[in-house]
Amino acid sequence: MELKVTTLEGKDAGSVQLSDEIFGLDPRADIIQRCIIWQLAKRQAGTHKTKGRAEIARTGKKMYKQKGTGGARHGSKRVPQFRGGGRAFGPVVRSHAIDLPKKVRALALKHALSAKAKDGGLIVIDQATMESAKTKALIGNFAGLGLTSALIIDGAELNAGFAMAARNIPNIDVLPIQGINVYDILRRQKLVLTKAAVDALEARFK
């Protein structure tokens, strides 16, 4: 698959040959969905917690005698029936993460990239660099490229000026190639790859 390469200013910068094994697959929604569920479950904090009856600081002495009161039978004041008592079957600190094989994760990334390429949401730029971190100038460049919601993937290291200029722009995410993931690809309308990112992806799936 051949795709035109542009600069940030919208000028022509030649073309690049994309691998059909990465960008030319027929996207499968089920594989992509499995990966997104895995990602979202893995990032859940799981820090919700309530106290059970064993954790309540209250006496465990029997409240009153068993018989002869005319009321219900009660023992400890820590039980869930009473105000201030422990909660029965409350949430505990735990991990929400589920397992997903590495091969399925890699395949889902390929299908997400292929989905963007298929629907015309993939753009390749020469490089993502700026000498000075000027957000206003970068917004103008993005307007020329028609980018209002985009994930921009660069090489192993981000250009400091570009990253600082882009971080205040809504709906624009900038990540190094190590951070590319299925969820962020699909939550933005456009996927912008630099030449360095394309080379790194092809080396990764070689």
Topology:
Blueprint: E1 2-6, E2 12-17, H1 20-23, H2 29-42, H3 102-118, E3 122-125, H4 135-145, E4 150-153, H5 160-166, E5 172-175, H6 182-187, E6 190-194, H7 195-204
Parallel strand pairs: 1-3, 3-6, 4-5, 4-6
Antiparallel strand pairs: 1-2
Helix pairs in contact: 2-3, 4-5
Structural notes for this entry:
The chain is an alpha/beta fold and 206 residues long. Helix content is 33%, strand content 14%. It has two domains: 2-42 and 99-204, Ribosomal protein L4/L1 (Ribosomal Protein L4, Chain: A, 3-Layer(aba) Sandwich), CATH 3.40.1370.10; 50-90, no CATH class. The protein is built from seven helices and six strands. Keywords: Ribonucleoprotein, Ribosomal protein, RNA-binding, rRNA-binding.
Descriptive tags:
7 helices, 14% strand, alpha/beta, six-stranded mixed sheet, 206 residues, Ribosomal Protein L4, Chain: A
